[in-house]
Description:
Distance between the termini: 53 Å
Number of helices: 5
Structural class: alpha+beta
Number of domains: 2
Mean pLDDT: 79
Strand order of the largest sheet: 2-3-4-5-6
Shape: rod-shaped
Amino acid sequence: MLINVAQMIVGPIGSVKDLDVDVELAVDEAVRPATIKGSLSLMRTDGGILVQGILAAVIGCTCVRCLTIFDYGFELEIEEEYVPVREASARTGRIVLEAEGLLIDSQNLLDLEPALREYAVLNAPLKPLCKPTCAGLCIQCGADLNRARCMCSPPPNGSSKDNQDQSSFVVARGQTA
Length: 177
């Protein structure tokens, strides 16, 4: 998402431009692209352009318990300052590559997409659950226990709680409850 900020760069410090955002971004771990909507405020600072705002995001996830694909919604609170490449080079005393960070390129284009992608990845759940009470899959037959009870017989040594304690991972490590 490229934004031309040529007029803002030469404008007075404190000038503000509002920007509506409605994008879909591919996110590494997501099943579907993240949809990000909302509005951002771009303000001219003495060093560049400050981007601030709160955006609503929805990302497609796979439940870690039952493997159901579901949409997970969350908010992104963004506050980043973009600096023109030539000013960044003058500050550091070396040539700054445009790929090094939050920079406004030599054509005065500000690219929001990398920052939006980072915010979406950082705010996505590490272990997504379709619902807090997700029952998961049967460890014997693989049936989705959220939809129906499976017809597996209980393990010979007891109840379903014992079944959870004797999962294949515990048995594989040679540990028993």
